[in-house]
Design brief:
There is one protein chain. The protein is mainly alpha-helical. Helix content is 62%, strand content 0%. α2 crosses α4. About 2% of the residues have low confidence.
Length: 319
């Protein structure tokens, strides 16, 4: 009889990191196809640029660190794909490449690589581009337009011009916005696929959606021009952020209660930024801010150790 002594965790699952990455990529494929339909060659070039640059940067960094190649695990590909989906279709090619390099180099490997990063790498890349190329990152085009016809996003139209985009356009994707955030229905379908496959935890998406729905319903009663519940759920990057970024297991709390708090915080910050700041959208900043709060949330909602549970049970039995 062999006794194997090893470090925790001791529970083994039938899937690994590469399997989980593949599932997320599969869930994003319909949205990627829709982006090609709405934004044509612009979307295709941005996606290809982000993915290739991310994978090349990943390989170079791993060679510099003298570590085995991690290209096959799909994490770099997924980071590039997510970054492409949160960029405007009109963004310049050099900005796309620079953002992908920054996402992998700083957002991921500066913290030690996959599993050690405290912020979502794709969002880190986008924040860098917003700070570096603010004009480029706030220039939008109409769907199906082969020329750079500038048009404000639905959230910008609501905030600055008090014009509400029809919810049907937001639901299907026929509106200006980032490459992969316009079609709410396809993002929801991809999100449900991840939930069914148990790749992501349902607590974070549910808490975000409920929080956004409650706050937006209150403000809609006050003034219909604030936007309805469906308007805020289907506009901007809420569905993309809710299902594919806020649920990143590396940058979210470990405990179940902590995940509810994480989603609650994201939802509140999203609506505070949308209603009270000078920015029309707040999904990116809310997720990054709550990523920074994860160590504190884990500390507050730290699960009791097995020994502590045993002591509690024994005390109850004595009583």
């Amino acid at each position: 009889m062999r006794l194997i002594v090893s470090d925790s965790p001791h529970l083994k699952a039938n899937y690994d990191t590469s399997w989980m990455m593949r599932q997320v990529i599969y869930a994003l494929i319909p949205t990627g196809v829709a982006s090609l339909y709405f934004f044509r060659f612009r979307a295709g070039f941005i996606i290809l640029n982000c993915v290739v640059t991310s994978m090349i940067t990943e390989e170079i960094v791993m060679r510099i660190r003298k570590r085995p190649s991690t290209i096959k695990d799909g994490s770099a590909l997924l980071t590039g794909l997510l970054l492409a989906f949160i960029l405007p279709p009109s963004v310049k090619w050099y900005a796309v490449s620079l953002g992908a390099v920054f996402a992998i180099l700083v957002g991921k490997h500066l913290f030690g690589g996959l599993g050690n990063n405290i912020f979502n790498p794709a969002l880190v890349g986008r924040v860098f581009l917003v700070a570096t190329y603010p004009k480029t990152m706030t220039t939008w085009i109409e769907p199906f337009s082969l020329q750079a016809v500038t048009e404000a996003t639905p959230l910008a139209l609501r905030k600055f011009d008090h014009i509400l985009t029809p919810v049907s356009n937001l639901f299907l994707g026929n509106s200006s916005g980032c490459v992969g955030e316009t079609s709410a229905i396809l993002l929801i379908l991809g999100g449900f696929y991840l939930l069914i496959r148990k790749v992501v935890d349902w607590r974070i998406p549910l808490s975000i959606i409920i929080t956004v729905s409650l706050i937006s319903s209150i403000f809609y009663v006050i003034n219909p021009l604030n936007g309805s519940v469906s308007f805020h759920l289907f506009s901007g990057g809420l569905m993309l952020g809710t299902f594919f970024m806020a649920t990143d297991p590396v940058t979210t709390p470990i405990s179940k209660k902590g995940r509810f708090v994480f989603g609650l915080g994201c939802g509140i910050l999203i609506m505070v930024i949308r209603y009270f700041s000078g920015l029309p959208e707040g999904v990116m900043y809310s997720i990054l801010f709550m990523n920074a709060c994860v160590p504190l949330i884990d500390r507050i909602f730290r699960p009791k150790s097995l020994g502590a549970i045993g002591v509690m049970i024994s005390k109850r039995r004595k009583k």
